[in-house]
Amino acid sequence: MNSLVLRNALLLDVESGTYREGDLVCADGRIAETGPRAAAPAGATEVDLRGGYVLPGLIDAHVHVAGITADTTALRGWSPSYIAAGAVRNMGAMLDRGFTTVRDVGGADYGFAAAQEDGLIRGPRLIFGGKALSQTGGHGDKRTAGVRVYDDHPFCGGSSRVADGVDGVRLAARDELRRGAHHIKVMASGGVASPTDHIDSTQYSMDELRAIVDEARAAGRYVTVHAYPPAAINRALEAGARCVEHGNLLDDRSVQLLVEREAFLVPTLVTYWALQREGMEHGLPRGSWEKVAQVLEGGLGALERAVRGGVAVVFGTDLLGGMQRFQSEEFRIRAEVQSPLEIIRSATSVAAELVRMPGEIGTLRPGARADLIVVDTDPLADVTALAGPLRMVVQSGRIEVG
């Protein structure tokens, strides 16, 4: 594997929030050395950054790489090969935006992850959960009211599977874990894109939630939940969930539980902004579009409450279809509430903790994966510098952009 040396850089230590002038050496896909006048390995490619700002590669902890349309009901009937082609395009575009690792929380499987790891496709390192678990009539049940048949084949298009009862959810969780899932996603409340439930509903019984958590823990994995209202968030955390997706309507008790349980929150504010602007242009049914306002208004307030309460907040976007091009807009939206350093940490070191790769990604320390981005404007002064265009993207020591 070729080596890479970046000279005359400003290297961000995300833990301390300070820059250090010097060089960075990548060898065998990892960061080998940082410091002034670092020695270049034989045959290394050397790039003079002339004071460019270097950050760890970005991490988006809530994506759907196979979500190539916002019409998630129609997606279930599409050809898997067509969906895969769209996913490959999505993954390449994510890498171009500086996201060197992403966590897929519904739809992607081991095939996508292995294809990226083996170099068959270009894209971020993929941490996947397979299909999310949904109760009948829950957020992951995409049938309209008049449809009875549910196709639960593992290779059908779609991000969820329906499972009911303690035995049913245990079997479904075990099956996703068998296929390599890094986490289990559970639909614990209603949502925008589901046709037959309400956003403020709670879903799954406590016994079912605890059974899923038990199975994930037994396999050394964890549960993350889709949840909007405080009742759904709090029930899931009490049942042992380690992470909450969205959380737009959380309350003070939710914040308390997130902190006490050392759980993570992944707000996805940009998706509501994008859905309101052009969701129907990308296949979102009108009934789902009309639900967006219910969660859009609460999003920034929930983020502010969580940050003030000391919750571990992680970067996520949850965009579908052609709206995935707005992925970096999340930086601008969060800047209304969080400091630049807090936002950067949410997309690097804190996200690395969530995906259980601290020290491996989300840092520029020697020994970490050589994933990094280079920008010309100081993101600690203006975090929207990360919204692009980026000067350089490096993944596993290879220059992908720049």
UniProtKB/TrEMBL annotation:
This is Imidazolonepropionase. GO terms for molecular function: hydrolase activity, acting on carbon-nitrogen (but not peptide) bonds. It comes from the Bacteria. Coiled coil: none annotated. CDD domains: Met_dep_hydrolase_A. Residues 53-396 form the Amidohydrolase-related domain. It comes from Saccharopolyspora kobensis.
